[in-house]
């Protein structure tokens, strides 16, 4: 069986199917707000869309690799980021119900001015830009070595085909196809887990007892993830755009359900890494396990990557389009919206040809936006404009401290992997919160 031919077949067939099934957006509301037949997404459509748009190729690759490195503790640690759904769901529910806000941009503009909103827009534009190449590079890695011709062709074809159905329906397409992709993901994950647990010497007990619950072996990441969950979701428009589509109650229910089910999906996918660890495998856990089980399971894992990457990519295109067209009010029409999608697809693909390294969006960019923590936690309490800038800029500085590994060891009270991540976030969030509150106290 020629694996490469089957892989190409999966990409092309799934993309063509999504294009055929996607609704055609004929109005700005359909394109930017996912209104379909004059109805907003219901609870389960929104829940499925939230989960699959966050279970991107990069994240499930990381989950499997963390399972390989730390056992089930690694999977649970990474799943800690899914607290983000609950935090965003509760806070945005209150902002909509008690503040009357219709978007994050409206909230920031009304409280801290247009400058604050523009700075925030730059941060989320960078986030969306990174999402394109970091996800497509994972797809490319299944077709060939980084820098090889098959690697580049896979990325280009996958990006173009995903862009095609995103252009057709905008956010309506994104949410509609997300539901299909979530169903496919669930079925494929069950197939993989069934195969793994069919092995005689591998059991649920072995999974449960894998890893050590210590800071050195996974807990640094868990606590860092939980801390970042109070700022991380607000710089991800893929998530926040979906928080303003349906009624506040429907949205809150969807976000809370997605928090639990999304975390469960990540933990279950990390079992692939736990199995790889038990078999003494090394390298990319998902790839190695796929090879060990043969062509069929390798193709199933490959299809999961395609499904999850496509859902994130079409959501990224939709969110960037909405950012420019609606949030920044540069042209709220279908032509400009579709042009914006094409622009981010092209710009986001350029780093692929520069051999960019895949940065973990949940570590570095997650730290750079910790300055948003007090902005949203204390959203009900009026604060001077300077509070916003002090907090956000301080968060960016701590992000660079993490990038350059500049936090002194004397300020890190645990050791091992992700210790620098944890303590950079602890000190960073503390500093951001104090600097946010000081001008407020002075003004009193």
From TrEMBL:
Q: Which InterPro entries does UniProt cross-reference here?
A: Na/Glc_symporter_sf (IPR038377), Na/solute_symporter (IPR001734)
TM regions (residue ranges): 6-22, 43-60, 66-92, 112-130, 150-167, 179-197, 217-234, 255-276, 292-313, 334-354, 360-379, 386-404, 416-438
Oxidoreductase keyword on record: no
The places in or outside the cell where this protein is found are:
Membrane
Q: How does it sit in the membrane?
A: Multi-pass membrane protein
Enumerate the Gene3D superfamilies for this protein: Sodium/glucose cotransporter
List the Pfam families hit by this protein, alphabetically. SSF
Q: Which UniProt keywords apply?
A: Membrane, Transmembrane, Transmembrane helix
- What family name appears in the similarity comment? Belongs to the sodium:solute symporter (SSF) (TC 2.A.21) family.
The name on file for this protein is Sodium:solute symporter
Q: Which organism is it from?
A: Dokdonia genika
């Amino acid at each position: 069986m020629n694996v490469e031919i089957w892989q190409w077949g999966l990409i092309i067939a799934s993309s063509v199917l999504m294009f055929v099934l996607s609704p055609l957006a004929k109005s700005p509301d359909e394109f930017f707000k996912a209104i379909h037949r004059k109805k907003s997404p219901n609870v389960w459509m929104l829940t499925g869309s939230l989960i699959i748009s966050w279970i991107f190729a990069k994240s499930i690759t990381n989950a499997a690799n963390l399972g390989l490195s730390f056992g089930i503790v690694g999977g649970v640690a990474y799943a800690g980021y899914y607290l983000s759904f609950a935090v965003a769901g509760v806070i945005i529910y209150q902002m909509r119900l008690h503040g009357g806000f219709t978007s994050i941009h409206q909230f920031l503009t009304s409280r801290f001015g247009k400058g604050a909103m523009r700075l925030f827009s730059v941060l989320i534009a960078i986030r969306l830009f990174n999402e394109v190449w970091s996800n497509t590079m994972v797809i490319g890695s299944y077709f060939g070595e980084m820098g090889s011709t098959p690697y580049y062709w896979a990325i280009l074809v996958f990006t173009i085909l995903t862009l095609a159905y995103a252009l057709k329906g905008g956010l309506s397409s994104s949410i509609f196809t997300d539901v299909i992709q979530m169903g496919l993901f669930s079925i494929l994950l069950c197939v993989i887990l069934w195969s793994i647990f069919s092995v005689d010497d591998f059991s649920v007990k072995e999974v449960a007892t894998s890893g050590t619950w210590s800071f050195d072996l996974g807990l640094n990441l868990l606590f860092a993830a939980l801390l970042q969950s109070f700022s991380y979701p607000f710089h991800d428009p893929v998530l926040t755009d979906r928080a303003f589509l349906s009624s506040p109650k429907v949205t809150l229910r969807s976000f809370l359900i997605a928090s639990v089910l999304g975390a469960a999906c990540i933990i279950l996918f990390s079992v692939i890494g736990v199995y790889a660890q038990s078999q003494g495998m090394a390298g990319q856990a998902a790839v190695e396990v796929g090879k060990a089980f043969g062509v069929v399971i390798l193709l199933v894992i490959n299809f999961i990557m395609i499904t999850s990457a496509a859902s994130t990519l079409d959501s990224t295109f939709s969110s960037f389009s909405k950012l420019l067209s609606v949030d920044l009010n540069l042209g709220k029409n279908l032509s400009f919206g579709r042009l914006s999608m094409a622009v981010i697809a092209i710009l986001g693909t350029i780093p692929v040809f520069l051999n960019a390294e895949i940065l973990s969006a949940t570590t570095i960019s997650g730290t750079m936006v910790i300055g948003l923590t007090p902005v949203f936690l204390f959203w009900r309490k009026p604060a001077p404009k300077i509070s916003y800038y002090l907090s956000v800029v301080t968060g960016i500085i701590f992000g660079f401290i993490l990038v350059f590994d500049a936090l002194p060891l004397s300020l890190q009270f645990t050791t091992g992997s992700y210790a620098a991540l944890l303590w950079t976030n602890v000190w960073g969030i503390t500093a951001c919160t104090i600097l946010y509150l000081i001008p407020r106290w002075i003004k009193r």
